[in-house]
Write a structure and sequence with these properties.
- 2 copies of one chain form a homodimer.
- By secondary structure, chain A is mostly helical.
- Chain A is built from 10 helices and no strands.
- The longest helix of chain A is centred in the middle third of the chain and has 27 residues.
- The first copy, chain A, starts with 12 loop residues before the first helix and ends in a 12-residue tail after the last helix.
- The interface between A and B is large, with 54 and 54 residues.
- The structure holds a DNA duplex.
DNA sequence: GTGAAAACTTACCACTTGGTAAGTAAATCG
DNA sequence: CGATTTACTTACCAAGTGGTAAGTTTTCAC
């Protein structure tokens, strides 16, 4: 665990502080996202980090305060990952495709990030309110994009919010629902992932593209 | 909490035992499904039930043994709920539609059931192996059904397992991902649920139905 | 009816939990 | 340099955790 996080042995004090908080947030995000918030104690976190629990409580006054910080971090990273795809070149389907590819990449390389969002949704209350607020600008951008594509006749006309949720949970499910995949006889190997992504893209294309499509190209 | 579970004041001893275990499983399923396994202590459960923690440990030797029992119960109830839909009358799309409607109904009326399956998937290990095993017969039936529909040209040809996962996570997402829905401006009221289900059905129809469809009727 | 098994409860325990208080070595500032 | 702030650690605690041991009452077999 806790690899690729620089050791706190150089730089100014302020820089070192920031580096420590960064390490804690990174490890906390990974643990909360994979094991769940309640399943990870501050002692567990501290042990992973090679520090004491009280060091964590020095930077944040309580475990809940830490959770909020992790939420902000997760939302920030999610936006970084996905928002770029919305600004990329290409129109209509090819842009959607690039978003899906990106989600897949994130789901493969950093499953804890998407797992964490789901975990937060389940916790509910202040936590999910916070993640909602954090992600609001991105959601707005995506919705506006969808509406424009619908106006242009490249995406089937429908409720853009629901389309977003459908696409989101479809991709998230296919990317992260490892146990379910296993249940239907799909081993989550790297090779099968490529196949899965292609199949999913054509699933989404069929669902989203406008009937008499003006898209540049259908997926193969 | 814990409503509609009969009080243990009559019947034979064996019947009373079974009734008690039933009550415990019901409350445990609800709590584990909504709050998560680790977030619910045996004391919490016992308090909800109006018994002592040791009464639970009398029926199952440990919390993990209880979890396994809850898994079996959840899988059983899921199969009861969904398997019937696969046997219903109607062919092609109308059958898929009835399954989706049923999932929606379950997601609305018993969110803890689907939440629990998701929770188990996250726990991983023996637990998810068990749920996989429990659900295997149903998955097989669904897969066989999909394949037959593809052969008949009523459903777009693709990997049936992945189609199942895609449909599963799409429906599950739209039905349970309340916070995400809220994030995109969809309040989960009862009225909006009807709209959401209709939109989702047309999303799925577009994704699943064969291009030149031989289906009895397209969804409205 | 009587002995035994079943279905509990009360009492208890070692361990973990989030969190506080007090101390300490190092960096920063005057 | 000396005082103070920063970034921690060691020591500790009350509450809660899953689980054991030993009763106690009710039901059942005979």
């Amino acid at each position: 665990m806790a690899l690729a996080v620089s050791s706190p042995t150089k730089g100014s004090r302020a820089a070192r502080t920031k580096a420590t908080e960064d390490r804690i947030l990174t490890v906390a995000l990974e643990s909360f996202g994979t094991k769940g918030f309640d399943s990870v104690s501050l002692d567990d976190l501290a042990a992973d980090l090679g520090i004491t629990k009280q060091a964590i409580l020095y930077h944040w006054p309580s475990k809940l305060a830490l959770l909020n910080a992790v939420i902000d971090r997760a939302a920030f990273e999610l936006i970084i990952e996905f928002d770029g795809a919305l600004s990329e070149d290409g129109s209509g389907w090819s842009r959607v495709e690039s978003v899906v590819r990106r989600i897949f990449r994130v789901a493969m390389r950093r499953p804890e990030l998407l797992g964490f969002i789901r975990e937060i949704s389940r916790i509910g209350g202040d936590a999910s309110l916070r993640v909602t607020t954090d992600l609001e600008p991105f959601v707005t951008r995506a919705t506006v994009y969808f509406e424009r594509e619908m106006d242009a006749g490249r995406i089937r006309r429908c409720n853009p919010g629901l389309l977003l949720v459908s696409a989101y949970s479809t991709v998230l499910g296919a990317a992260t629902e490892v146990e379910v995949l296993r249940a239907v006889g799909i081993e989550p190997t790297l090779r099968s992932t490529v196949v899965r992504r292609r199949e999913l893209l054509s699933f989404l294309y069929a669902a989203m593209a406008a009937p008499e499509s003006k898209n540049d190209q259908a997926p193969r």
